[in-house]
Amino acid sequence: MPQTRTFTLADFDYALPPELIAQFPLATRSASRLLDGRAATPHDKTFRDLPTLLQPGDLLIFNNTKVLNARLRAVKASGGLVEVLVERLLSPTLALTQLRASHAPKPGTRIVIAGKHQAEIVGRDDRFFQVQLSSGDFESLMRESGELPLPPYMQRAAAPGDTERYQTVYAEHEGAVAAPTAGLHFDEATLAACRERRIEMAHVTLHVGAGTFLPVKTDNLSEHKMHRERYALPQATVDAVNACKARGGRVVAVGTTSVRTLEGCMRECGELRAHESETDIFITPGFEFKVVDVLLTNFHLPKSTLLMLVSAFAGYEHIRSLYAHAIEQRYRFFSYGDAMLLQRSTL
């Protein structure tokens, strides 16, 4: 039955006790809890159980993006401090950024980044600012002086341990400013257990932008302007998906970013094919999924586009009940939190 209800922003709000927001990772990646939410009744598992919940012939799709040290410190001519969070590079010396300062800088403002690199704010697009370097390039600057950009709900600076733990073990292609967090639970032992069970694996690359943390501000969801993210879908992954479907296996997306890549390509191209592009796909209840059968994902922020995506995938009321169960059972939420496994709704 097609989706007929009209949803507003308030439908995706929920009350989360602050102490359930995970501020640090667990000692072991696969020690996280896993809420098996595929059936009407939820089942509490651990992440190490994941291989037994999948079937031989299933296909895991991982996002192998790698998080950049995208947070930079800067100073205005007035002496005011500015935090620069690189969203994406438009050229080696021009970046789309988010800026945090006591007073929002205007276009034309000059700043000094990392104590020595002259830059100018040359434009603004809503919540994003274009910053032009006068010397050096942003890639080198981030490697030399950048900090790992932990999400804003982790109310702390990045610690040495985050350098490893805020990357997936299969991270390969630099370009993200936020981790594809569902993949953070995988360690080599879990991957080996999946292989032993004859579960196939393939990769996409979607460079997660800082826009993933921006709240939706309009009550009418159709008015929300979705941020764009770069992705690459290789031929080997297209072939793996087609082979999986042909043998009756299930395509299991590891994280919403893998969903956005696969379904974004289908929307843009009308078919799944090797492709590099940008996607601004906004998935809300009523969306018709073409590729993904099962979704492994973390718990998402209230009123977020990602909560809307999982509600579209597994059913709005079902997600509401799963989140209520997770809060009651004291699951850990958000990037360093626990995971859930969802089946695509057929309603």
Quick synopsis:
Helices cover 21% and strands 27% of the residues. The protein contains eight helices and 17 strands. The termini are close together.
Describe this structure in words.
The structure is a single chain. This protein has 347 residues and is α/β, with parallel strands linked by helices. It folds into two domains: 9-67 and 161-343, 3-Layer(aba) Sandwich (QueA-like), CATH 3.40.1780.10; 71-145, Thrombin, subunit H (Beta Barrel), CATH 2.40.10. It contains eight helices and 17 strands. A nine-stranded mixed beta sheet has the order 2-1-17-16-14-3-12-13-15, with helices on one face. Strand 5 and strand 6 (81-91) form a beta hairpin. The longest helix is centred in the C-terminal third of the chain and has 14 residues, at 256-269. It is globular.
| Named CATH topology of the largest domain | QueA-like
CATH superfamily of the largest domain: QueA-like
Strand order of the largest sheet: 2-1-17-16-14-3-12-13-15
User: Care to count the β-strands?
Assistant: 17
Question: Which architecture of the largest domain per CATH?
Answer: 3-Layer(aba) Sandwich
Q: Give the N-terminus to C-terminus distance in angstroms.
A: 5 Å
List low-pLDDT spans: none
What is the CATH C level class of the largest domain, in words?
Answer: Alpha Beta
Average per-residue pLDDT, rounded, comes to 94
Reading the helices and strands in chain order gives EEHEEEEEEEEHHEHEEHEHEEHHE
Share in helix: 10-25%
Structural class: alpha/beta
**Biggest sheet, in brief?**
9 strands, mixed
**Strand-residue fraction?**
25-35%
Q: What value does the Rg take, in angstroms?
A: 20 Å
| Count of structural domains | 2
Count, helices:
8
